[in-house]
Amino acid sequence: MKRRVLVVDDEANVRKALSTTLGKVGYDIKEAASGDEALMQVESFRPEVVLLDLRMPVMDGMETLRRMKQLDGNHSRVVMMTAYGSASDVMEAMRLGAFDYIQKPFDLAAVKQVVANAVQHPENEEEPLPGHDSGDEGQERSGLIGLSPAMQNVYKLVGRVSMSKANVLIQGESGTGKELIARAIHANSPRASQPLIPVNCGAIPENLLESELFGYERGAFTGAVGRKQGMFELADGGTLFLDEVGELSPALQVKLLRVLQDRKLIRLGGVEPISIDVRVIAATNRNLQERIRQELFREDLYYRLNVVPIHMPPLRERKEDIPLLIRHFLAKYSREAGKEGLYLSQATMDLLLGYHWPGNVRQLENTIERAVILASGPSILPEHVRGHLQEVGTADQPAPVPGIRYEGRTMREILQEVEREAIARALRKERGNKLQTAKRLGISRRALLYKIEMYGLKISEEEQV
């Protein structure tokens, strides 16, 4: 029996190309030129997969998707198609129950693969989130900008995970926009009307962080003159965003784990457990799995937080988004400075596109803000940005180490070679004694064994201990 596919697009040539391609590989194809026609075809044809264009006159693809999901007995997997996809469009489509989201112009082979994935997917897997309308929130309003494949994948994950209650762990380098992702998840969730409480775990001293998170009773410690609710209680019904969660001390990790397990907390100085309904979104620029191996982060807490992982790509891996980001930041800061109409010279754009951006989007934003202030004419020239890039680039380079080659290598490669050499030297000094080597390096024996294996370090038989 042929699998049924409905192609919905107001452009006849797009419908024909898709119908011909999918028909040749054995699908039963029907076409619809509008949202209204698509809804009628869904009820009569009962397609298993719908390829649905986002931008159509009268009833657009998003409204058509909403109505399709409301039809009784409709289990079609909907794949959205558009040439104009923004972050909010992708997240809204996934939140409403779309199976996938592809951009025009698309590779027909990729379309065949998406359709094949959809027909093999279990029914009822993509259920829309009820009772929430995100409104017309564009990229600039959400703060998420980028059309690269890497960012499209992030938007899809945000749309899907916003429908659930699951904890989320956002990992990525500093400046990639992890907090923006946390805010987008909250804004697209059923908790959107409740508070989102951000906590920077790395910026609050450990002796204060416990009381900030869990609250305290009067007399709990010197200066506790009254009861205070902690961040968990303030976020009740909403979302708690734990930024830099990798910086938590071992003692606080234990207490956080208990709260996540029991959904209850006890204030400092208190005895009564308090029930809470809080979704936790955590973020870190640390490699938590490495910290687990070094016995600096609890493995059980990691799995509690990492129910849905989201990786934020560094800017150097999505350079096609740099012009969009520049346009956004340039409009923002030129408006604030009363210099509207500023533009980048081609030489400046080439310079920014060729830079490696160790500070990611945050560094790019800072660079554009500074350039707007320095510009005295209608255009931003290379001299308005070059000095800042050199300053940051110099600060990011490690101090020279004898025997280490720097030219043409990434920071990660340089640091790994430095680490490998430090471990090799320590092993030689301790004549292969792993326990003493670990103590010398200030890491656990388990972490040392992992590093020895990772770097392929060899120890002579007479030196092994």
UniProtKB/TrEMBL annotation:
Residues 144-373 form the Sigma-54 factor interaction domain. SMART domains: AAA, REC. Pfam families: AAA_lid_14, HTH_8, Response_reg, Sigma54_activat. Residues 129-140 have a biased composition (Basic and acidic residues). The keyword Nucleotide-binding applies. It comes from the Bacteria. Keywords: Activator, ATP-binding, DNA-binding, Nucleotide-binding, Phosphoprotein, Transcription, Transcription regulation. Residues 4-119 form the Response regulatory domain. GO terms for molecular function: ATP binding; sequence-specific DNA binding. The keyword Transcription applies. InterPro entries: AAA+_ATPase (IPR003593), AAA_lid_NorR (IPR058031), CheY-like_superfamily (IPR011006), Homeodomain-like_sf (IPR009057), HTH_Fis (IPR002197), P-loop_NTPase (IPR027417), Sig_transdc_resp-reg_receiver (IPR001789), Sigma_54_int (IPR002078). Residues 121-143 are annotated as: Disordered. This is Acetoacetate metabolism regulatory protein AtoC. It comes from Brevibacillus panacihumi W25.
